[in-house]
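TL;DR need C-alpha cells for one chain.
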Amino acid sequence: MNFLQTLTLPFKSYKFLLYQLTQKEIKARYKQSFVGYAWIIVNPLAQLLVYTFVFSMVFRTVSVDVPYPLFVFSVLIPWTFFQTSIQASTNSLVSNSSLLKKVAFPREVIPYATVLSKVVDLIFSYVVFFIFLVIYGVPFHLSSLFFVLIFLIQFILTISISLISAAANLFYRDVQYLVGLILMLWMYLTPVVYPLAMVPEKYISLYKLNPMVGLVEGYRAIFFGYDLPIQDLGWSLGSSCILFLLAYAFFKKVEPIFADIV
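>> reply
TL;DR here they are.
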C-alpha cells in the first residue's frame, strides 16, 4: 500500500463509519452547552483579545505591517485546529472503548473522525476572519487559493501526531497531560503571536526544523500577499509525510492489543 492509499483508506473504505463518528464528535462536544456552537468563535476570539492586549498594547514589542489582530488571527485559527485536534484525539480511543471491544474496523478511523470534527470549527472561525479582513480593508489575494494545499500538509501532520498520542494514551493515561504541556510549549516555539523576524538569525535554521513554522508562515503569506516560503513548506510536507508513515506503522503494530488494555 503506497502513501496516498494509506492516508486515504478511512475516507474510501470506511467513509460511512467515518461520517457517523465525526457527526457524533460534533454533536457530543456542544451537547447541553449554554451557548452551543458559539464556542467555536468565542474561544479563538478570546485568545485573540488577550494576545492583542499583551503583545501590542502592554509590551509593544511586536511590529508588523498588517493590523496585529489580523496578523495573529490568521494563524491562531489553524493553530487552534492543530492543538484541539491532537488533544481530543489523544483521548479518543479511551473514550470509544466500547467500539474497540465490540466492532471490527481499522482503529485509526477514530482519531481521523476526531480531527475531521475540528475542521468544522476551523471553517466557522475563518468566516469570522474574512469578516475582519473586510472591516480592516485588507484586499483579497489570489494566493489565498493555496489555502487547501497548506491545510492538507497540516492535516497530515495533525493526523500523524494524533495516531501516536491516541495509541500511547491507551498504554499510559498520563500521556494526555504530557501532550497538553508539549503543545503549550510548541506554540511559543512557533511564530503565532510574533513574527519570524524576531527569531535571532543564529537560531533560525534550528528553529525552522519545527514543521509548523513553514505552515504558519505559509498561511500569512497567502492571506497578506507575502512571498510563499516554498522551502519551508517543502520541509513541512516532507517531515509530515515521513512522520505519518512512522505513526501509522506504530499504530498498526500496537492495534491488535487495544481491546486488551482499554
